[in-house]
Each structure stands twice: as C-alpha cells, then as structure tokens.
Design brief:
Blueprint lengths: L2 E6 L16 H12 L3 E6 H6 L1 H13 L21 H4 L6 H9 L2 H15 L1
Parallel strand pairs: 1-2
C-alpha cells in the first residue's frame, strides 16, 4: 500500500508567495498521478497539522482502515485522548490566490505555527 501524505501551506514563509492554490491544476494532476499508481492520497492543510496533530493521526488511521482487511486494521491506543471535533472546527477549504495573499499579509502562518515553534525550542 502506498500513501501520499500532503501538507499544504497557503504561502511560502520566506517570500510570502501564494502556493497550493485551489485554481492551480498541478495539484489535481499530482493527486491523479499518485491515485493512478494505486496510492492513497491524504491531504491536510498545514493549519490542521499545527492545531490538531492528534486528530490528523486519527484521520489517517480512519482512512487507512477503509483499505485494510479486518485482521490488519489499525487502532489508536486506549490511553490516547483525542478531543472530538466538529466538522466546522476541523475542515479547511482550499484557498484562492487572493485568499493566500490576504493570509500572507496578515502573517496567519506565524500565528498558528507559534505553538509548534515553542514546542521545538523546548525539545
């Protein structure tokens, strides 16, 4: 089983250039390429990974379990507490070039990546 795990950012940190845009067909072509090879494509927004890493892991397990035989199913350890999320809290819609430019101007990535940076400094 092949897995293509994609993490999309709205813009580059250095140049604030819009990337992973909904209107950019190369990402659709990329997904189709991997799907054509039999891969499972799982795509997250960087925001989801930064804000809800445990929930992202749970989502990966759920997706993979759809393709695994019963005896091979994955499970999350019982001691793991993952807060249930409502779809409106979890879902991130793909962004347009204009939305990406607005996010870059507001430095939105700095805000949601701050806890990740702080964690990395401690460890």
């Amino acid at each position: 089983m092949g897995i293509d795990l994609e993490i999309d950012e709205p813009y580059t940190l250095k140049e604030s250039m819009p990337i992973h845009l909904v209107e950019d067909r190369k990402y659709i072509i990329r997904d189709k390429f991997f799907l054509g090879l039999g891969y499972i494509v799982i795509r997250f927004a960087e925001y989801q990974i930064a804000k809800y890493p445990d929930y992202c892991c749970l989502h990966i397990v759920r997706v993979l379990n759809q393709f695994l035989d019963r005896e091979l199913k994955l499970s999350i350890p019982q001691a793991t507490e993952i807060q249930p999320l409502k779809p409106q809290d979890w879902k991130v819609k793909a962004w347009t070039q204009r939305e990406s430019q607005i996010m870059a101007a507001n430095k939105i990535r700095d805000r949601y990546l701050e806890p990740v940076k702080a964690f990395n400094l401690k460890h």
